[in-house]
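for the record, two folds in this file. i put them one after another cuz i was lazy. first one right below, seq on top, structure tokens after. the second one comes after a little note so u can tell where it starts
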Amino acid sequence: VGGREVGFMFGQYKRLRNEFTGVLTGKGISFGGSLIRPEATGYGCVYFAQSMLETQGKNFEGKIVVISGSGNVAQYAAEKAIELGGKVVTFSDSAGYIYDEEGIDTDKLAHVMEIKNVNYGRISDYIKKYPNAKYVAAGKPWEVKCDIALPCATQNELNGDEAKQLLDNGCICVAEGANMPSTPEAVIAFQEAKILFAPGKASNAGGVATSGLEMSQNSLRLSWTREEVDERLKKIMADIHESCLKYGTEEGGFIDYVKGANIAGFVKVADAMLGQGVV
């Protein structure tokens, strides 16, 4: 479901109910949508990864970044990673992946967006304009040497063997942009290696969070600027990261982001239930 489909559903809701309320999010800007909403999941994933790296005195500057997928989340994760100084080298789709060793800059990213958002083409079309890049049919980008991996395609796209391949290639940080892209075996491999690993329930929360910001704007009958929404998104992702640190930091300093996110989520729901007398 994309913006067009949300628009159709919202139009029919208005027709049936004869009222204009922010019941759906991801709407068009001209009828109650929010700036940054399309970018939010990808941006938020990178903001979270940046916070993780900062716990070790590192950042995206000069880091090689592999990204799976080439849709909305992948595109905007790449945009933000490039902005922060990362060198994005891959995109993929269901047929294979492209590897551009020179790095994908803003012009090349614009071409990826044209391929996917305008022409509805395959990622293999990328090498028609940039022949120095390599296309690997039926492959996944996890075999590429990298510092940071952002799985942004689909559920269970990264298995245990591929996780070990990433680790062998020197990957130090994995942040999930998709919903549950890492299999349980992959998660275990990352945790045993004690690298920075963010589960999607934390690192891809930016999209849902910005949907909440869209609803807030609808309720207030306001439209915030791009900068205002982006700052609120950054704050939300920083707060989520702090919650993970609070509940996930272990003796010796290792941060188990899976445990931290799980406990933080549980405590939030439990506190709400207790506060309302449910338990």
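(here's the note) second protein begins now
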Amino acid sequence: MTAVGNTQPFCVLMAGLPGSGKTTLSSALTARGFIRLCPDEEMFRRHGVYGIDFPRGIFPALERPVLEEISIELGEQLRSGQDVVIDHGFWTPDDRARWRAIATDAGATVALVYLEASHEELWSRVSKRNARHEADPNSIYFSESDLLRYRTRFVPPGRTNRTLSTTVTRNPY
């Protein structure tokens, strides 16, 4: 299956901070035939609850092999003609370029979707998700100070013809 009007497989890279709506939108794309790949869900499946089953500080080390395996799966799915959405933050230009290259090397048309929201909106969503973090792999628990720190590390994508950007102003939760 490929996106409407496209003969190549289609890959959507979801970029944004926690709480911006990446999971909501990427889950909606599955109804249109996309395969959804989500590193956070795989981390939860393999390692359990962040900060409870494994210490917060080792997340990057545990995530590296997960991301590598998902990148391989991405290439395989796209080469088979399947449309794919990746539910991941893509915080840096290098990260976005790496995943875009994997998808284009597999013959896909790639769109980067950047979801932007105010700090207040992000924190409103994240604080609600925190209540279910032990049961929901997409609800990693973190504090408001964590969210503020994450914003300093996130490099918003530049506006190009290959980036779709939207500002999220209402809470879908």
